[in-house]
Write a structure and sequence with these properties.
4-stranded antiparallel sheet; 461 residues; alpha+beta; 27 strands; 32% strand; Methylamine Dehydrogenase, Chain H
């Protein structure tokens, strides 16, 4: 266990493993409750060595508490951090505890930066960040004077921005990224869309509260994990109506989640009661295969090491618990990839069929509503046309209008029996055709048999 060395402890909000080795990890510490940070609280975040739990290896000192922190995947000396005051800071551990670059506050986010990530580019200097101010900003870390590009999270296109609390980016899909929002939905962006209105490619709504974690499966990037409210969900990018796999509703709130980097069917979820759920989707899809109580405080962050053998769990009391995963959970099982792929495909096809059926039902209901509206309008017109006569005439017109109105039950019954009669006639026709063919074959065979008999008689004499 790795504890916040300060007297006033702070929640461990983000964990990031060193890209080249599973011995070091960086942790961001911050109090996220608005105006609840006590006086004299430390601003430092730390880099830990797994073999030295007693003291951090290095401190990172920002101007405002770090909410997010991430290593550069191409350079283990460089880290990017998102601060509580909305600024972006970049550290080079060779240059000391102070950040090497900081974005100016007037060009930064207006709310805490809940996630800052590096993009997979040749230079290794491109990054992006998100915040609850409803903006996604792209940066060149060599020059943080202003963002390279700013995108607004406005899926409804009405000027009301959705706050972002989670970011996901997959290097195999360089133009796409996903944002988990406070509104319970995941928004898929296509950065290279020509029209600004087309940059929001899709929205996946499925949670009743903020989406605290979004992460693509490292083996099947089309599928992604989300954690929010009381559930964990797995989505397919092609199915927007519903997730393809989801957990039961837990008694305790889910706060974080991630995939195993070494096994495609294993993922982890952190809960508000301090426990961690370890999932094996080949074993169970609606419940964790194992639940471990790791802390007395709510779990705030989870991150598996690059080799999949360790899981770092950050709690709101500032403690980091390092779980060592056994070989069953850390090593790929025989034929696991095709088996997990088959599970994903099966569940995706099921959801596609259900979504298609729901669309059919919806369209049928709309058609019925339109039909009823037309019938009502006709009845009104007939009633209005006969309104000039006496009471008796008017009543007669209303009765005729009601008589003229088709009864949907009678129509359905009539259509059913007509279909039965048509099917019966078709069967009789096919039966008659077969009988005729049989009779024709029999007649054709009779002369041939007679000729054979005549040919046999002289031979017998």
């Amino acid at each position: 266990m790795y504890k916040d060395p300060n007297e006033i402890t702070r929640p461990a909000t983000t964990i990031s493993w060193h890209p080249d080795q599973s011995r070091k990890f960086a942790v961001a510490y911050s109090v996220l409750d608005f105006q609840k940070a006590p006086a004299g609280i430390s601003l430092d975040s730390y880099i830990w060595d797994t073999e030295v739990p007693t003291a951090p290896e290095m401190a990172l000192t920002p101007s405002s508490p770090l909410v997010s922190l991430e290593y550069n995947p191409k350079d283990g000396h460089i880290l990017i951090g998102g601060q509580y005051n909305g600024q972006i800071a970049v550290w080079d551990t060779r240059k000391g505890a102070r950040p090497a670059e900081v974005s100016p506050i007037e060009k930064s986010h207006r709310d805490p930066v809940y996630s800052a990530r590096y993009l997979s580019t040749k230079s290794g200097t491109d990054a992006f960040s998100c915040s609850t101010d409803g903006q996604v900003m792209f940066w060149d870390v060599r020059k943080l004077a202003e963002p390279v590009e700013t995108l607004l999270i406005d899926p409804e296109n009405n000027g009301r921005l959705w706050g972002a609390v989670a970011l996901e980016y997959e290097s195999t899909m360089p133009t796409k990224f996903q944002v988990g929002t406070e509104q319970g939905a995941v928004v898929l962006f296509n950065r290279k869309a020509k029209n600004p209105n087309e940059k929001i490619a899709a929205t996946y709504a499925g949670h009743h509260g903020p989406v605290y974690a979004v992460e693509r499966n490292p083996f099947f990037p089309k599928y992604f994990l989300t954690v929010g409210d009381w559930t964990m969900r797995v989505w397919c990018e092609d199915v927007r109506e519903s997730s393809v796999i989801w957990s039961e509703y837990h008694k305790s709130y889910l706060t974080s989640g991630c995939w195993s980097p070494s096994r495609p069917g294993v993922c982890f979820t952190g809960k508000h009661d301090g426990s961690v759920g370890i999932w094996d989707l080949l074993f169970k899809t609606n419940q964790p295969a194992l639940t471990v109580q790791v802390a007395d405080a709510p779990i705030q962050s989870l991150r598996a090491s690059n080799d999949g053998e360790h899981l770092a769990c950050g709690a709101s009391d500032g403690s980091i618990t390092l779980l060592s995963l056994n070989e069953t959970l850390a090593k790929m099982q025989p034929n696991e990839k095709p088996r997990v792929s088959a599970v994903f495909e099966r569940e995706t096809n099921r959801e596609k069929v259900l979504a298609s059926r729901m669309r059919e039902v919806h369209l049928a209901a709309k058609a019925e509503e339109a039909k009823a509206a037309i019938a009502a309008k006709k009845a009104e017109q007939k009633a209005a046309g006969g309104g000039g006569g006496g009471d008796g005439d008017g009543g007669g017109d209303e009765e005729h209008a009601e008589d003229d109105e088709p009864d949907p039950i009678e129509e359905a019954t009539k259509a059913f029996w007509e279909a039965i009669e048509q099917d019966k006639a078709k069967r009789e026709k096919q039966k008659k055709k077969k009988a005729d063919e049989k009779e024709a074959a029999k007649k054709a065979a009779e002369p041939q048999a007679a000729e054979e008999e005549v040919a046999e008689e002289p031979a017998a004499e």
